[in-house]
């Protein structure tokens, strides 16, 4: 059981349910190939059936960790820090991003956009999900829209979400890993016919790195 004091610190973002943290190469989207320190926060209720980190869903499985300790670990490695999940915006990200930026670290987030936008971000990657659609505030501020393509219907979903983001937002289509052999050729054809989109691949999986 989490005690009252810890609950308050979590509410303030001074502790977070940390699932894992690791130094690797960003494998997806606009910053593919960039050395990055990933911080994976536990907790998600969006519930994508193809999620490859379902162990992140239950926040109670991941110990509340002092946010300053997370920052101390991050600054030892890359200049770019990626906050992911789970769904990190289930928690207040303001304290974490403040501390990271005080260390001159770039703050990136990968989010479904289903929760209010907290924190100060150098880059917002919005990866919307049908189960729980993104809030307007996140769509308006997204730097990158990354839509996972599992079947043909997802192209319509991608266009619907693209109509909601700002004009400077970069647009990416990414094949869902388990269905990549079927969907990748369709994505190639789609992007060639709709060049406002780009292809994102999970290159870290091809490289066999985290």
TrEMBL record:
Binding-site residues for substrate, renumbered to this chain: 25-27, 40, 84, 210
Top-rank lineage group of the source organism: Bacteria
InterPro entries: 7-CO-7-deazaguanine_synth-like (IPR024924), Aldolase_TIM (IPR013785), rSAM (IPR007197), rSAM_sf (IPR058240)
Functional summary from the UniProt entry: Catalyzes the complex heterocyclic radical-mediated conversion of 6-carboxy-5,6,7,8-tetrahydropterin (CPH4) to 7-carboxy-7-deazaguanine (CDG), a step common to the biosynthetic pathways of all 7-deazapurine-containing compounds.
Catalytic activity entry: 6-carboxy-5,6,7,8-tetrahydropterin + H(+) = 7-carboxy-7-carbaguanine + NH4(+)
The enzyme's E.C. designation: 4.3.99.3
Listed GO biological process terms: tRNA queuosine(34) biosynthetic process
UniProt organism field: Urechidicola croceus
Note on cofactor: Binds 1 S-adenosyl-L-methionine per subunit.
Name of one Pfam family that matches: Radical_SAM
Gene3D superfamilies: Aldolase class I
Subunit details: Homodimer.
Protein name in the entry: 7-carboxy-7-deazaguanine synthase
KW Magnesium (keyword) present: yes
Pathway note: Purine metabolism; 7-cyano-7-deazaguanine biosynthesis
HAMAP family: QueE (MF_00917)
Family as reported in the entry's similarity comment: Belongs to the radical SAM superfamily. 7-carboxy-7-deazaguanine synthase family.
Cofactor(s) needed by this chain: Mg(2+); S-adenosyl-L-methionine; [4Fe-4S] cluster
Residue ranges of domain Radical SAM core in the record: 31-210
Residues involved in [4Fe-4S] cluster binding: 44, 48, 51
């Amino acid at each position: 059981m989490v005690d009252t004091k810890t609950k308050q610190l979590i509410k303030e973002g001074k502790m977070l349910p940390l699932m894992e943290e690791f130094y690797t190469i960003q494998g997806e989207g606009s910053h593919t190939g960039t050395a990055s320190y990933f911080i994976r926060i536990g907790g998600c209720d969006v519930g994508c059936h193809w999620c490859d980190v379902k162990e992140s869903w239950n926040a109670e499985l991941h110990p509340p960790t002092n946010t300053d300790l997370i920052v101390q670990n991050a600054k030892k490695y890359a200049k770019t820090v990626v906050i992911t999940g789970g769904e990190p915006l289930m928690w207040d990200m303001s304290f974490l991003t403040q501390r990271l930026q005080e260390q001159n670290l770039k703050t990136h987030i990968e989010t479904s956009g289903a929760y209010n936008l907290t924190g100060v971000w150098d880059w917002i990657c919005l990866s919307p999900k049908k189960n729980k659609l993104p809030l307007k505030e996140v769509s308006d501020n997204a730097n990158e829209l990354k839509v996972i393509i599992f079947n043909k219907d997802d192209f319509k979903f991608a266009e619907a979400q693209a109509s909601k983001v700002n004009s400077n937002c970069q647009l990416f289509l990414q094949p869902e890993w388990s269905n990549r052999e079927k969907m990748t050729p369709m994505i190639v054809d789609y992007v060639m016919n709709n060049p406002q989109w780009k292809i994102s691949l999970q290159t870290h999986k091809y490289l066999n790195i985290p």
